[in-house]
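Allow me, if you will, to draw on your knowledge of protein folds for a short while. I have a record of one protein: its chain in single-letter code and its fold written as discrete structure tokens. Could you please explain, in whatever detail you think fit, how the structure tokens follow from the sequence? The record follows directly beneath this note:
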Amino acid sequence: MNDRLALPAAAALAFLTLALWLYLLLFQAAGVQVANRSGVVIGGLTVCQNGGDCLHRAHLWPHQTWRVPLDRTTGKPIRLTVHAAGGQRQSVAHVPETARSRPSFVVGQGGRIQVQ
């Protein structure tokens, strides 16, 4: 690469990287979030809408957040199901008040699920 092009190319790449990070952090309003704050790896996660659209994830590591790209509609419940190691299943449903709201499920100590 020509030395005259190296600095502009690096600046353009830095700008594009920053723009992508800002887009991902600020403008991703769609979907549902599932956060693991339990301190252990949880497995067998399933997020479903009332219409039958479901997404699955095998594992979610401690302090990791899963952004689930489901299209939400007002008044339709969204359900999170987590399969614990002992064969136990925990499930929580949430009905979003508006289509723009982003429900967040937080799995805490002992596998308890809260909606925020």
